[in-house]
From TrEMBL:
Protein name: DNA-binding response regulator, NarL/FixJ family, contains REC and HTH domains
Coiled-coil stretches: none
Residue ranges constituting the Response regulatory domain according to the UniProt record: 3-121
Residue stretches making up the HTH luxR-type domain: 148-213
Residues modified to 4-aspartylphosphate: D54
Molecular function in Gene Ontology: DNA binding
CDD domains: LuxR_C_like, REC_NarL-like
GO biological process terms held by the UniProt record: phosphorelay signal transduction system; regulation of DNA-templated transcription
Glycoprotein recorded as keyword: no
Length: 218
């Protein structure tokens, strides 16, 4: 059973999402909150599989709430999905940097919301690598100056090569074909790069690739 926590300051949004999720046999809503601080507290108390988290809220916004969840070792298995009214913007980018697994626009189709919850619960990045790369590229073009990323120097050349291919939108199977290695080996390289950089998932690995200048927007 996938356990979901809803955090949004709009009661109508919470009620609508709760009704939709509760109708599924494999999903249960374990709680909801109207601000980020309460959301973090509930996440620590219940340790849900997925937190659907609004960006702009009172008391504590979604970016800080994401950062606190992502930085808590006890919540390593909790996956944050950011909710936004506006699509990809600076708030969402900062949330991805803070450790979110991806994002959803609030008026997304019901089946897309359900799919997103299931994908996030598996520990996969919510967005496909290609979509993640395109969206992050659009933001990075506004702030193109690379900076240091802690742990990048610890990566082997092979791991850096794999990280660059992830940032370019390739799946593990595509990376394996490009590098003439097995998909399992490709997955291992991705996992090791994520561990060394402290990235929670592929979405954050893409962010680090652009921030460090390992990959540049063409």
């Amino acid at each position: 059973m996938i356990r979901v926590l809803l955090v949004d300051d709009q009661a109508l949004i919470r009620a609508g999402f709760r009704a939709l999720l509760a109708a599924e046999d494999d999903i249960t809503v374990i709680g909801d909150a109207a601000d980020g601080a309460t959301g973090v507290s509930l996440a620590r108390q219940h340790r849900p599989d997925v937190v659907l988290l609004d960006v702009q809220m009172p008391v504590m916004d979604g970016i800080e709430a994401t950062r606190q969840i992502a930085s808590d070792p006890a919540l390593a298995d909790v996956h944050v999905v950011i909710l936004t009214n506006y699509g990809f913007d600076e708030y969402v980018f900062n949330a991805l940097r803070a450790g979110a697994s991806g994002f959803l626009v609030k008026d997304t189709e019901p089946e897309d919301l359900l799919t997103a919850v299931r994908v996030a619960a598996r520990g996969d990045a919510l967005l496909s690598p290609a979509i993640t790369r395109r969206l992050i590229s659009e933001f990075v073009t506004r702030t193109p100056q690379p900076g240091p990323v802690v742990g990048l120097d610890d990566l082997t050349n092979r791991e850096k090569e794999v990280m660059a291919l992830v940032a370019k939108g390739l799946t593990n199977d595509e990376i394996a074909a490009r590098m003439v290695i097995s998909p399992t080996t490709a997955k291992t390289h991705v996992s090791r790069a994520m561990t060394k950089l402290g990235a929670r998932d592929r979405a954050q690995l893409v962010v680090f690739a652009y921030e460090s200048g390992l990959v540049r927007v063409s």
